[in-house]
């Protein structure tokens, strides 16, 4: 028998709007009073609303999130939290935007194995994406130096910027400040690139 349904929302800053995530959770049948929202970075799990909902979870309860990045951005820690919720507590997790990440489907003793495989794959993909971006930047710097060009901060190619633009303005996975830090560019450079990208 299924337990209570909870929903969890995370946005990276107070300026971001959680409405899209909330609508998805309401459509999934979670009552508004059981939806918990943090407006904080996903770099760790020391978030008050997340810790509260985790304390409330009991065996056979279900935790719904819109996508995996709402749970957090550190995949090693996501795996640790996933195991604690699904194995130690005995609750289920449903990731609405990824049908495979629904632990209710794996009740034949294979749930931990299946979840681990999927999470390892996602972790690998995220790491490869970071490596690809770093490689592009390094190759660009090397080529410029060979041509005698002094760059200072590395110029972010528009195809790299497209990824961060999508993360900030479409996926809501990070704030503009977090994107600036990851790209190692100034605020003025970021918004100049934003304008160039939107105009193109």
From TrEMBL:
Alphabetical list of Gene3D superfamilies matching this protein: Resolvase, N-terminal catalytic domain
Name of the protein in question: DNA invertase Pin-like site-specific DNA recombinase
InterPro entries listed in its UniProt record: Recombinase_CS, Resolv_N, Resolvase-like_N_sf, SSR_resolvase
Top-rank lineage group of the source organism: Bacteria
Positions of the catalytic residues: 12
Taxonomy of the source species: Bacteria, Bacillati, Bacillota, Clostridia, Halanaerobiales
PANTHER family listed in its UniProt record: DNA-INVERTASE FROM LAMBDOID PROPHAGE (PTHR30461), SERINE RECOMBINASE PINE-RELATED (PTHR30461:SF2)
Keywords assigned by UniProt, alphabetized: DNA integration, DNA recombination, DNA-binding
Domain (Resolvase/invertase-type recombinase catalytic) ranges: 4-148
């Amino acid at each position: 028998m299924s337990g209570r349904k909870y929903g969890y929302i995370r946005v990276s800053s107070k300026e971001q709007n959680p409405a899209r995530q909330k609508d998805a959770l309401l459509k999934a049948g979670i009552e508004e009073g059981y939806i918990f929202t943090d407006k904080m970075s996903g770099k760790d799990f020391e978030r008050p609303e997340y810790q509260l909902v985790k304390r409330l979870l009991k065996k056979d309860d279900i935790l719904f999130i819109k996508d995996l990045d709402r749970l957090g951005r550190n995949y090693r820690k996501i795996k640790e939290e996933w195991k604690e919720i699904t194995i130690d507590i005995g609750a289920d997790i449903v990731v609405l935007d990824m049908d495979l990440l629904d632990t209710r489907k794996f009740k034949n003793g294979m749930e931990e194995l299946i979840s681990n495989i999927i999470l390892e794959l996602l972790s690998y993909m995220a790491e490869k994406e970071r490596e690809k971006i770093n490689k592009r930047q390094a190759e660009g710097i090397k080529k410029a130096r060979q041509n005698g060009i002094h760059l200072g901060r590395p110029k972010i190619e528009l195809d790299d910027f497209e990824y961060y633009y999508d993360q900030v303005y479409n996926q809501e996975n990070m704030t503009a400040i977090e994107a600036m830090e990851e790209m190692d560019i100034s605020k003025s450079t970021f918004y100049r690139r934003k304008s160039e990208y939107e105009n193109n």
